[in-house]
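Practice record 12: protein with benzoic acid.
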Amino acid sequence: MAILIGDTAPDFELDSTEGPIHFYDYIEGHWAVLFSHPKNFTPVCTTELGYTAKLKPEFDKRDVKVLGLSVDKLEDHAAWASDIAETQGTALNFPLLADTKGEVARKYDMIHPNADNTLTVRSVFVIGPDKKVKLKIEYPASTGRNFDEVIRVIDSLQLTAKHQVATPVNWKNGEDVIIAGSVNNEAAKLKYPEGWKEPKPYLRIVPQPRG
Ligand code: BEZ
C-alpha cells in the first residue's frame, strides 16, 4: 500500500556511507528528509547530491536530518562521493543509504515499475518528529528536483505545526500567511488583536507569526 501524507514513515535498518543506520533511532525527535535518487555516477543525481550537501547548514538550522538512498552498493556510494566533491564543490555531508535489495525503496514506493523496474524515481519524503509523513513528492529520473523548494515547504510545515495558519501560493519565509479555517473570528481577535486583511470571509491574511 502506498505511503501517504499523514501515514507513519516505515522504519528500516540499512548500511550507509556513515555506517549502519536504524532510521527511527537516527531521526528520533527531529525532522527528516529521506530522498531517493535513481543511480550513482549519473549526471542529474550528481548535481542534486552536491546541491543538497551545500544546503546542509539550512537543514541543520531547521533541525532536519537528511538521508539519501539508492539501490546502489555502499562501495559505489563511496567512490561516487569523491566525484560529487570534485564536480559540485561540496563533499557529501549526510548519509547515503545503500538499499541494494530495494527493500526500503519498495516500502516507500520509490520504484515505479512502469518508469523503471529496478531503479528508484526521485522521491522526497519530509517526516516530522512524530514520524508521520508531512510531504511526499516524486520526480522522474530525467528531471532534477528543486531542493530550495524542499526547504521552503519545511519552513511552511514547521510554521503551520506551531501556529494555526496556512501558507499561500509561492509563500516564502517571512511573508504574510492565512489564518486557518479552524480558527473562528472570535479566537482570531485574541490571537491577532491588530486585526487582519479580509478580502473574503474565508481569506484572512496576517503577518507571519514569530516565535
Ligand atoms: C541522472 O541522474 O542523470 C539519471 C539517472 C538515471 C536515469 C536517467 C538520468
